[in-house]
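User: I'm putting together a teaching handout on how multi-component assemblies are represented. Below are the sequence lines for each component of a complex, exactly as they appear in our records. Could you produce the 3D structure of the whole assembly as structure tokens, so the students can see both representations side by side? Please keep the chain order the same as the input.
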Amino acid sequence: MKLLVCGGAGFIGSNFVRQRVQENGDDVVVLDKLTYAGRRENLEDLGDAVTLVRGAIEDPVKAREAIGDGVDAIVNFAAETHVDRSISGPDAFVETNVRGSLVLLEAAREREVPRYVQISTDEVYGSIEEGSFTEESPIVPSSPYSASKAGGDLLVQSYFHTYGLETVIARGSNNYGPYQYPEKLIPLMMLSALHDDNLLVYGDGLNVRNWLFVEDFGRGISHILAHGAPGEVYNVGGPTESTNLDVVNGILEHTGKDESLIKFIEDRKGHDRRYSLGSEKVKALGWSAQVGFEEGLERTLSWYRDNPSWWHPIVDSADFREYYERHYKRPLTWREAASR
Ligand code: NAD
Ligand code: TYD
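Assistant: Of course. Below is the structure of the complete assembly, with chains in the same order as your input.
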């Protein structure tokens, strides 16, 4: 296929592009703004199979340029994605996740793109104490991030109902794996442990997330791209539900570090207690998760251990250090630890 993958230089997008190029032989155009979270390096092993267009999805000229002579499908991963950043600065979230989705949908309609896949999140359903969300569950987002993702999803639905654009929405649960920007729980805790720094856990650490290895999400998206019914939503949930404390303890075990590194800090504002996603609908399309949490955690840790040349420039950057200090109200001391 010829695919336009928006946000393809980020964590999940670049893993998806790698899978499509290596397993399907696809020809891929990536449209990416290369924000702090997007990196050319994430795609550099893929050579000529990928063309990178640097630009924002909310720029209609760039969106048209990236579609070029036409594509078989658009898969939209482009988003501002970190809940904590959305709490301190929500504007960019609305601009990219809502307005950006609208501009892309309009470009897809105008150029008669045959298929549009929106990558969304379980967070649009809000928090659930017991049981699991289905695709019929009401949309009750809690954070500016999840509210902006919900806004994008509703626009996607409106383009199906109003214009007959062949849309599908894939709602994934929390992803982890190689190439994840180290502001998110799993890579941040892994790098903290490797540097003998504190693992900073919000609140009581008993919030539950439904962890999905990034390659499994990619396979789920491919199933939905190929077989999803137009206008439908598909949940793609991971095989494991864990409290944050269990995740952090698992990382300490895998790195051989002591529990005394765990430090409880002030809770996130509006912190969703539990996510749990029922995935029967995508399973009926033939998908199931292949990678268990233990294996995924081990593979992720090995990748971060083996690729310091990937994460060093990030954690040494002014952007990351400023973000870390502002958010955690303590300086990042890893450079000093590394040079000791
Ligand atoms: P990420 O932050 O690693 O990557 C986002 C990418 O989008 C980056 O390459 C960034 O440069 C690009 N981008 C940001 N704003 C842009 C804009 N205006 N125009 C063009 N490109 C822009 O995020 P991720 O974790 O890979 O998430 C990808 C998608 O999957 C998002 O839509 C997110 O909501 C969704 N999702 C993520 C998770 C998760 O656990 N990470 C779970 C479910 C769904
Ligand atoms: P995160 O990776 O930010 O994903 P999301 O908020 O989208 O679920 O956070 C996962 C969980 O880990 C969430 O309950 C918040 C918690 N968390 C911490 O306890 N400490 C941290 O430093 C971070 C980044 C997250």
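A couple of points students might notice: The longest strand covers residues 27-32. Residues 6-7, 9-13, 32-35, 37-38, 56-58, 77-81, 96, 100, 119, 121, 149, 172, 174-175, 181 surround nicotinamide-adenine-dinucleotide (ligand 1) (CB under 6 Å).
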